Amino acid sequence: MKIETAVTRLTALAQVHRLAVFRLLVRKGADGMPAGEIAAALKLAPNALSFHLKGLSAAGLITSRQDGRYVIYSPDFKAMNGLLDYLTENCCADGALDAACAPPQNCQDC
Amino acid sequence: MKIETAVTRLTALAQVHRLAVFRLLVRKGADGMPAGEIAAALKLAPNALSFHLKGLSAAGLITSRQDGRYVIYSPDFKAMNGLLDYLTENCCADGALDAACAPPQNCQDC
DNA sequence: TCATTATTTCAATGATTATTGAAATAAATA
DNA sequence: TATTTATTTCAATAATCATTGAAATAATGA
């Protein structure tokens, strides 16, 4: 992964509302959630939510599909896992090991 | 983890220079690296590096110790792993599983 | 002490970003 | 067609952040 891609994705997640949206979608998994339901769950104004969904989409962290008059948003787990891997890449490769440097128990429910 | 903590850490990582510094320190592991060596490796002005190290420190992602006239910086793996876990927490707990929703091979060298 | 090396702080500038209210687009139903 | 529902776009404002050059602090060695 290019560092610019990682920065783009981290920037998208580095905002309370976008992070809350992303985590909500991660919980939901492949089913996804319509925009209105996300807005209701997080008490966000529709236009504000739209602004933040655009940011997450542009970063490649979520995808959307039209379903009638609803737009359903889902997390992109490949993008997420790619980012997590990038952050821990070559961990301790050039120096001393660290006891806390261990694979986290990510995504344990899947 | 409180969402504000996660946002603070993501914000710290969401900048090319800080992300490069962090990844360099992750490679180095527990040994850490003096500020000047980081600056040389990444071709950053000392004051610019100091600004970014401050950001990473304030977010709790790195720690520092004085060694003579050097200041040695090291990654905080607990903070990093806590953040990674937070991003994948309750993955697919409320909806359909996703084939790509699997633990990444983090930190495989440790 | 004086000079050198390492790192941090400060102030000014320019750029990016979130928020708000209002309006526009798009699909479904009466 | 007209109306309602769902979502997005737009424009203005306010706030935050990175960069630069210069100066300050701190530790070492001559």
Automatic annotation (TrEMBL), chains A, B:
PROSITE patterns with a match to the protein in the record: HTH_ARSR_2
SUPFAM superfamilies (UniProt xref): Winged helix' DNA-binding domain
Molecular function terms from GO: DNA binding; DNA-binding transcription factor activity
One Pfam family named in its UniProt record: HTH_20
InterPro entries: ArsR-like_HTH, HTH_ArsR_DNA-bd_dom, Metal_resp_trans_reg, WH-like_DNA-bd_sf, WH_DNA-bd_sf
Positions of the HTH arsR-type domain: 1-95
NCBIfam families, per database record: HTH_metalloreg
Protein name: Helix-turn-helix transcriptional regulator
Organism field: Solimonas marina
